[in-house]
Design goal:
Blueprint lengths: L23 E6 L4 H10 L5 E7 L8 H4 L12 E2 L1 H8 L4 E6 L6 H13 L6 E6 L9 H8 L12 E3 L12 E3 L3 H16 L5 E8 L14 H4 L4 E2 L7 H13 L4 E8 L6 E8 L6 H12 L5 E3 L15 E8 L2 E8 L3 H15 L17
Parallel strand pairs: 1-2, 1-4, 2-3, 4-5, 5-7, 6-7, 8-10, 12-13
Antiparallel strand pairs: 8-11, 9-10, 11-14, 13-14
Length: 374
């Protein structure tokens, strides 16, 4: 088997230089879960986005450091608030960055209520939302309902949202953003450049292992630590709800719909995703064409780094990076895609999008080095 080596190794990130136009008030909706905690952690060093309200109906009045003791010292006066109190604070700001970390099926109604409130007071303010649920990932209410089996709570807002991975979406497609899930981000970053270049056939097989934080804070029969420690198992193979999301977003990026077969797995670790993608070279395509397509897509990207051979998941944990490696033998192509599900697959990708919405470099506040050892 031959491993196609990239033309250059990973490039170091440099802190971007820019003139900040002041602080942007930042609100986090449904702020007591893992993703919200990661948003708050990333924003401790962000030069522009400043949290002014974190909404939690279950922990209203409690300091955020009760839920996130690892942030002690960073937010000494910030407490969870009920929605109405958060809105009262938000109304006083001319620029607002709103992140929604609410669960699937609940976020759309919450986001719609917030936007209606802010739009209804007559103040001319700059407001952008990045939603981290699945509620705005499909272009129509009908497409959403086919997958999630319940009516969409805010169909009138769908046209205001663009769903996509930042590296695969040029510029600012809409005023608000729906960030794809972590599995989808890993799969699309590894496959879309090859599909778009026509160097592989139109079917992708994805096997991906995720850490337990991807299932949220509340333990269930399959996410509770004793069930996952020293264990590995698949769930919802070839029928997971992220499969049609992957196909829909790939079609949006390349103009036609590939077939993506997806088998997710639960791994015995807390954070990270490791995805292995199987593809087949198109007739007449070569291993060099695979390398060229990936380099063309990502050589200018600060967060997608190309590796000679399979990358290792621990190298991306704690960062907004995705590491890609690949191998080619005959007409078989294997792409390895690994990222931190809580950062590149959620909070970090959301901050990356919000940076762009406010005219900041994608890298702003996201240049953390990896942890190295876990």
């Amino acid at each position: 088997m031959s491993v196609v080596k990239p033309k250059s190794g990973p490039r170091p990130l440099a802190q971007p230089q820019f003139e900040a136009g002041g602080q942007v008030a930042t609100v986090i909706l449904a702020g007591s879960g893992y993703v919200a905690g990661e948003l708050l952690r990333l924003l401790t060093t962000h030069p522009v986005f400043s949290p002014v309200a974190v909404v939690s109906s279950s922990q209203g009045g409690e300091p955020v450091t009760v839920a996130f003791p690892h942030l002690a010292g960073h937010y000494p006066t910030l407490a969870f608030r009920e929605l109405e109190g958060a809105l009262a604070t938000a109304r006083r700001s001319e620029s607002l960055a709103i992140f929604s970390a609410a669960p699937h099926g609940h976020s759309a109604a919450l986001v719609a209520r917030v936007l209606e409130d802010l739009e209804g007071d007559g103040m001319d303010r700059q407001v952008h939302v990045v939603d981290l649920s699945a509620d705005f990932r499909f272009p129509s209410a009908e497409a959403y309902e086919r997958v999630y089996r319940h009516p969409h709570a805010a169909p009138q807002r769908l046209e205001q949202f663009h769903c996509g991975v930042p590296e695969l979406s040029a510029g600012l497609p809409r005023r608000h953003i729906a960030h794809p899930g972590c599995f989808t981000t890993a799969a699309l970053l590894g496959s879309v450049p090859l599909l778009a270049a026509g160097v592989v056939e139109r079917e992708v097989q994805v096997s991906a292992v995720t850490g337990s934080t991807g299932a949220g804070k509340t333990p269930t029969a399959t996410t509770h630590h004793p069930e996952r420690r020293s264990n590995l198992f698949s769930y919802a193979p070839l029928g997971h709800r992220h499969e049609p999301e992957m196909e829909s977003l790939a079609e949006q990026a390349i103009g036609w719909r590939p077939r993506i077969a997806f088998a997710p797995h639960a791994g015995p670790f807390a954070r990270g995703i490791y995805a292995t993608l199987w593809l087949r070279l198109a007739p007449g395509a070569s291993a060099d064409a695979v390398a060229d397509a990936l380099h063309h897509a990502y050589d200018a990207s600060p967060f997608v780094l190309l590796w000679a051979g399979p990358p290792e998941m621990q190298d991306v944990v704690g960062t907004n990076h995705c590491h890609l490696g690949w191998a080619v033998e005959g007409r078989t192509v294997v792409v390895f895609s690994t990222l931190d599900n809580l950062i590149k697959g959620a909070a970090g990708g959301a901050v990356q999008w919000m940076n762009r919405l406010f005219g900041l470099p994608d890298e702003t506040g996201l240049v953390q080095a990896g942890l190295g050892w876990l």
